Amino acid sequence: MSLRIHRWILFEVFFALMPIIFNYANSRMIGVPASYATLVGKGELLLISGAICAAGMGELVASITKKSATPQSGSRFAGLKITLIATSAILIAGTSWFYASTAERIQLTTNAGKSLHEAAINFDSVAATSTAILLFAMLTSIGCLIVAEVS
User: Fold this and answer.
1) Alpha-carbon distance 43 to 148, whole Å?
2) DSSP code of 8?
């Protein structure tokens, strides 16, 4: 179990966050102040959240289909499995919509010849909300991994 969670942290979470880490490092190298809202206020964490949820949900669905050949295999933790899969699906749909909405507002602003500072978006709010969603997505995904492993 711990090896699976270790792989999840390294290959799903860390590598997914790597572009944001590099963006921060590049900003520091050229001397540009990089606030948290500047790094993730355009919805980047929403894409990562959706991908993390999809990966966790995929692991859980794979474990269900792999074990479905044995009798009674689907009944263990059935309610929890349904809840985790439904939560993951809602998070994927919600993060996709939230990112599309944020990206559209940014695109409309830049198409109108305005700077991002004039956008009808509160980048601090997007950063804070997407961080909370990322944490919930990580909990949901790790829940999927644990249930997939023990069921």
Assistant:
1) 29
2) I
pLDDT, tens only, 64-91:
887 665 555 556 788 999 999 999 999 9
**DSSP class per residue in 71-136:** TTTTTTTHHHHHHHHHHHHHHHHHHHHHHHHHHHHHHHHHHTT--GGGSS--HHHHHHHHHHHHHH
pTM: 0.86
CA distance 87 to 81: 10
**H or E element that contains 147:** helix 123-150
Whether 111 contacts 24, CB under 8 Å: no
The Cα 10–Cα 36 span in angstroms is: 22
- CA-CA distance, 54 to 88, in Å (whole number)? 7
How far separated are the first and last CA of the chain, in Å rounded? 12
Residues 6+ apart with CB under 8 A from 32: none
